[in-house]
Design brief:
Layout (H helix, E strand, L loop, with lengths): L2 E5 L3 H12 L3 E5 L9
Parallel strand pairs: 1-2
């Protein structure tokens, strides 16, 4: 299992985090805004 950091909580970052997590890796998602989903 790898530890992965995804920067950005837009649709691409959320999709990447989901795929990486489903592959069995530990994911940390970083987002500058208090909400997810992009602008």
């Amino acid at each position: 299992m790898s530890r992965v950091v995804v920067v950005g909580g837009g649709i691409g970052g959320l999709a990447a985090a989901a795929l990486i997590g489903r592959a069995g890796n530990e994911v940390t998602l970083l987002e500058a805004n208090p909400w997810l989903g992009g602008k």
